[in-house]
Design a protein that fits this description.
The chain is an alpha+beta fold. 46% of the residues lie in helices and 12% in strands. About 3% of the residues have low confidence. The strands form 2 sheets. The chain has a 6-stranded antiparallel beta sheet with strand order 1-3-4-2-6-5, covered by helices on one side. It folds into 2 domains: 153 residues, no CATH class; 172 residues, no CATH class. It has 16 helices and 10 strands.
Length: 420
């Protein structure tokens, strides 16, 4: 499948159903919208830790062999003559770090980060060089957690055999829908998809059928998604979450200003309390150790400390709390409280909540059910896309990629025929 075919089958990632689902995600801000988009709910993964050592050993062995094949320096060859003794990831990384210090010409060894494991063909010294900017395309796989390393090893071997430039990243520490991300250049994209198809066809149990692909990707296969257009860190989803957050805030604010919602004291009270409680939950990592909030009385220098139980009483029993009553009145009258902050305290943690921003985001539960709001949100997103280099008509694609498709300037090399 080539890039034009992917573009032609691209699902509508700004459909009513998807935007409504994203608004629902946004109304619960105990996790960031970015985490929601990739399905990261903060649950840690379980996987065999020994596989870290095995994967590092595979990379290390390939790296050592390639240096031995391409170096005539007797000192270097002697240093690498007994590296078979290194079996643990920590020992390998320590050796490589010291080796690079002594031999800077071999400085491209792929060191893993704490959460993401990364590997690329530049780092493996396979001889197929590329610049980072050439990796314009990302392929997302929904794999079983215990099979990720198996897939990665097969992918690496296949790409080395075919001399396909490759880069991939994967993480096993948290449950998420973007377990494995494989990057490709314009020339290698079609071959990379063929390689991945071949691996999955021969090993169907690698796929986790219960895991969803990230919601904004184009579904090439039930288990394979596509995306292009990244932020400075190389993230497809962080860039789009930034666009979505801006557009959702504007949409919710418009709904709040134009609806009769502010005349409903019960709803207003519920949403004031719910937005504060959700912030307290986030601060306390979802535990029940909420202690208190400190609310300015909206008058200079005066504050009012309110414990959690009193906050709930204000909502349910109508007791008077001066600061919250004044906040309620200002919301009803649509006065500007954009700079209003609440200090939330949980155990030993203290953090200021920008109340208005949190409150407006909380209203996503209402705009998610409003066709007019969803249409407005879609327009906001499309208006913002050009600023971020995203195709306004296809949210999964970068503008530069879409333009090349329309101008028919792609040249794809069939690396796949080289695979043994």
């Amino acid at each position: 499948m080539n890039i034009k075919e992917i573009y032609d089958i691209s699902n509508d990632s700004l459909s009513d159903d998807i935007l409504s689902e994203i608004l629902d995600m946004n109304s619960d801000f105990e996790h960031s919208l970015y985490d929601k988009l990739i399905g990261n709910n903060g649950i840690k993964s379980i996987y065999p830790l020994y596989q870290d050592d095995l994967f590092e050993k595979v990379k290390f062995t390939s790296w050592v062999n390639l240096i031995i094949e391409n170096s005539k320096d007797k000192k270097v060859l002697k240093e690498l003559s007994d590296t078979h003794k290194f079996q643990r990831k920590e020992d390998i990384e320590r050796f490589v770090w010291d080796f690079k210090e002594r031999n800077p010409m071999f400085s491209n060894y792929p060191m893993s980060s704490r959460s993401w494991n990364r590997m690329n063909s530049n780092a493996s010294l396979m001889g197929t060089k590329y610049s980072q900017s050439e990796m314009k395309h990302a392929l997302y796989l929904s794999l079983d957690n215990n099979k990720v390393y198996n897939f990665i090893n097969m992918l690496t071997i296949s790409c080395l055999q075919a001399k396909v430039p490759f880069e991939y990243s994967f993480r096993l520490d948290y449950e998420a829908d973007d377990k494995v991300v494989v990057y490709a250049t314009d020339e290698s994209l079609e071959s990379m998809i063929k390689i991945i198809d071949s691996i999955i066809e021969s090993n169907p149990k690698l796929i986790n059928k219960e895991r969803q692909l990230p919601i904004l990707t184009t579904k090439i296969r039930p288990w394979l998604g596509y995306g292009s257009g990244f932020d400075k860190t190389g993230s497809f989803h962080r860039l789009r979450s930034e666009i979505l957050e801006e557009a959702i805030f504007e949409t919710n604010q418009k709904w709040f200003n134009e609806s009769d919602y502010s005349n409903n004291d019960v709803k207003l009270k519920n949403d004031i309390v719910d937005s504060i409680v959700k912030f307290l939950n986030k601060l306390s990592n979802g535990s029940n150790e909420k202690t208190s909030i400190t609310v300015p009385t909206l008058e200079a220098r005066n504050v009012e400390e309110i414990d959690y139980n009193t906050l709930m009483l204000w909502k349910n029993d109508g007791i008077s709390i001066k600061s919250l009553d004044m906040l309620l009145d200002k919301l009803k009258n649509k006065e500007d409280i954009s700079n209003f902050k609440i200090l939330c305290t949980s155990k030993n943690k203290r953090k200021a909540m920008h109340f208005y921003e949190g409150f407006i985001n909380h209203l996503s539960k209402y705009t998610a059910a409003s066709k007019e709001s969803i249409d407005y949100l879609r327009t906001c997103i499309k208006d913002k896309c050009p600023k971020y280099g995203i195709d306004s008509n296809n949210f999964a694609f970068a503008n530069s990629v879409s333009s090349n498709i329309k101008e028919n300037t792609y040249v794809e090399e069939d690396y796949y025929k080289k695979v043994v």
